[in-house]
Design a protein that fits this description.
single chain, about 240 residues, alpha/beta, Rossmann fold, six-stranded parallel beta sheet, five-stranded parallel beta sheet, 9 helices
Length: about 240
Amino acid sequence: MIYAVDIDGTLFFEGIGLAEGAVDFIQHLHTKGQVYLLSNNSTQSRIQIQEKVYPVVMDEDHIVSTLAMVEYTIRKEEIASAYYIGNFVLEQYIINSGARIDRNNAEAVFIGYTQNPKFSSITLASRLVKNGAKFYSLGNDSFYPVFGKLTPGVGYLEGAIAQITGKQPLMLGKPGISMLNMISEKENSRDIIMVGDNPDTDIRMANSFGCKSLLIGKRDPRATYCAKDLKEAMKKI
C-alpha cells in the first residue's frame, strides 16, 4: 500500500508545530507500506519541509511539493521563460529548473502563495495568460492554517486571474491529481490512500484520481474513512 499524507493542517501547523500523534502515525504507516508527504506550500523547499516535520524524517524523494511539480513541469514541457506570483523560493525553483524570469513574453505563468500580492502582479500575470502563456496554479486552497488561524490561500489569486482571462489553470497542486500521478508512476501502482484534513483539496484529489481517502478532524461523505484525530486514524488504516 502507498500512503500519501498531507502535511499542513494534518501533520503540521504553522506557529504550533507537529500535530499530536504525528510521529506515531507516520511510523505506523511505515510498517504497512510506502509513505509520501504532500504539500501545497509553495514558499518552502523540500529541504525546508523535511526540517519542519522532524522527527517525522523522510528522505527528500518522498516529499512531493508543488515546487517539485514546478521543476518537473518546466523540464518536461521544456519551458524556457516564465513569470510567477509567489516568493523567492518559487523564483529559485523556476531558475534552477532551466527557465528564465520574463515579464514581457513568458511562456508560462506559475501562481504560488504570497501574503502580500501586488495588484500590478495580478494584472501582469493576467495579461500574459490572456496573450497565450500556459497558466499553472500551485494549488487552489482557499485558506491555510497559520498560527492556529486561517489565512487566504492560492485559490483567491488563481480565481482572480481565471475570472479576468476566462482561462482555468493547469493544477500542479491539490486538488489536481499531478502529485498522485507522479507517485503512482514512481511506484508503478495506483493502490494509494490519501490522508488529509481538507475535503475540498485532499479528498477531492483522491476522488478525481480514483483512490481511497482518510479525512482527519472532520466528517464528509466524499471521504472513504473519517477520523477525529491521528490517533483514531491509526485504527482506520
